[in-house]
Structure formats: structure tokens, C-alpha cells
Design brief:
Strand order of the largest sheet of chain A: 1-3-2
Strand content of chain A: 15-25%
Structural class of chain A: alpha+beta
Radius of gyration of chain A: 16 Å
Bound molecules: zinc ion
Number of domains of chain A: 2
CATH architecture of the largest domain in chain A: Orthogonal Bundle
Oligomer: homodimer
Helix content of chain A: 25-40%
CATH class of the largest domain in chain A: Mainly Alpha
CATH superfamily of the largest domain in chain A: Winged helix-like DNA-binding domain superfamily/Winged helix DNA-binding domain
Shape of chain A: globular
Largest interface: A-B, 35 and 36 residues
Number of strands of chain A: 6
Amino acid sequence: MSERLDEQARHMLRETKLYCTEARVAILRVLLEANGPLRQDQIAGWESHKLNKVTVYRTLDSLAEAGLVHRAFLQNRAWHFELADHCSEKQCHPHFTCTNCGVTRCMTDISLPLAKIPQKGYVISRQQVRLEGLCPACA
Amino acid sequence: MSERLDEQARHMLRETKLYCTEARVAILRVLLEANGPLRQDQIAGWESHKLNKVTVYRTLDSLAEAGLVHRAFLQNRAWHFELADHCSEKQCHPHFTCTNCGVTRCMTDISLPLAKIPQKGYVISRQQVRLEGLCPACA
DNA sequence: TCAGAATATGCAACTGAGTTGCATATTTTT
DNA sequence: AAAAATATGCAACTCAGTTGCATATTCTGA
Ligand SMILES: [Zn+2]
Ligand SMILES: [Zn+2]
Ligand SMILES: [Zn+2]
Ligand SMILES: [Zn+2]
């Protein structure tokens, strides 16, 4: 099954005309396996892959540019990345963060209506929602 | 009228039982005058006030803790602060950022419905929305 | 299949916003 | 006015992100 994910990653890269390098495949695999947003250092250290920090940085940059990956949100000064395919065209799923224990969870089963800007001329290409509160364990 | 703002700032501080210091009054005034979220360095350098960076940092921290000020939900590495009174109890107004020219605008006239989390046990205390796209000038 | 072009990698060194300890100054309270 | 409570500012630190440059990989097309 790791074969399967590798193949999937390679396919995604070919689709977007990105060089199919070891680092890109590894990073896409990590994101495919993860069930939520990850920090760069989490990706770099995933299962002792020991990917170089700068490579991870530049790879995520290229993956984001290609639209395969999104910068989900900034938390504690660090970007959190996740696959873009969890998101619809214009709206990413909301993320909930517990103010007590700090866990962040993808709320893939919720979606809010797209905002309508009354002033003429605005074009919205992406809407992001952040929820803050207490998780079941802390409430 | 700057007298007016000073008085207003002092009043806010007294209300929240915070020490009424020169730095706090100055920073509140800056935020009262500003029409959008500001970075710490913008606040520190506002009209040659030349406030100390660490003081600005700790002051904003205390103002946020007291609920007078909020950290806006933007996609930048630097926090942006604004007065909290633009926000309702559970929801802050959305912020729109133009991906072309970079301007950020408070969308105080829009509001989305509060998210409903289907899973039991979650308590949402705050919802924040970020919009990205093209402003009228860039569209 | 192999040379050359195009692109990615990794080291080291830097940036920039935030953060902290500690001695001193200010504000409040008594 | 003195004491207690809190805020300020310097300097030094953290840490994720970022960049230059030499080297290594990947891709392309003869
Ligand atoms: Zn929790
Ligand atoms: Zn997510
Ligand atoms: Zn614009
Ligand atoms: Zn705002």
C-alpha cells in the first residue's frame, strides 16, 4: 500500500508537470497519509525520513504553487500544510482549534455559505474559516 | 479631537482595570484612529511616536487579554491587531485580502452564519473568516 | 541511450517577528 | 508620601522561514 501512495504521488506530480523527485514524492506521501495539516518540521521528520529543511520548504512552495497543496493556516508562527483536494474550488473546510489543549481539527463535514461582498468589483477566490473554542475533551 | 480620543482610550482602560499608562493610551489611540488591522511595527512607528518594540508587544498582549483588542485572522507571519469592538460576541468581521496588490480590508458589513459542528461536545467561542481574491482596482 | 538543458537539492549564513530576564521607572493604593 | 503592584526598556535570545551558491538530479531530444 505504500507502493500505492507512491504511485498516486507520482501521478499527481506528472499531472502538474512537476519534476518527479524523491523529495516531492516523499512529501506528497506524508500528506496523503496524514489526516490533517502538518508543519514543515513534522513533514521533514515524518517516520525518520529526515528530509532536509530547505528542501521541504522549497518543495512545499512548489506544490502549493502547483495547487496540489494549501497553506491551511498559521499557528504558533508556523505554517500548516495539507493536500488541497480536501477543499472545494473556492472554499477550504473550516479548522477548529481548542483554546485549552491546543488541538486543531479539520472540520470537513461543515461548510458555510460563500460570503457575498455588497460592494461592486470584488472577486473572491478563496474563503477560509477558523473556529476557536473548546473540544469535547476540554469542554 | 485628539483630546477626545485620548479620553476615550483612558476610559477604556479604566473600564477594564488596566493601569492607565502613556504607552497604553498611545496604542489605543493609534488603533482608534486606524481603520484596519495593524502590525506591531506599524503601531510602534505611528506618526513618529517611536514606541518601544517590547512595550508595544506586551501592551498589545495585555489589551488583547483584557478583550479590548483582537488579533485578526490573516495569512501573514506578523500578527495584525485591531480594536475588538468591531466584532460581535462570537464572530469577528471577515477580512478581505487582495492577492494582487495586497491590501486588506475589514468587511464590517458582511457576516456569515455561525458554524454548527455536528459532533457532540464542541463549544465554539469565536469564528473568524478570511477572504482572498481581487479588489475592485485589481480585478 | 547519452549529452545538454532545465530544475532541484543542501549547506551555511541570514532575516524578522516574537519572546524573556532583569534592573529600573510609573502608576495605584494605603 | 511610602509601599505595593505593575509597566517599561535594554540586550540578548528563539525559531520558522528565507536566500545565495555550488552541486546533484531529472528530463528532453538527438
Ligand atoms: Zn481541547
Ligand atoms: Zn484541514
Ligand atoms: Zn488589489
Ligand atoms: Zn477588521
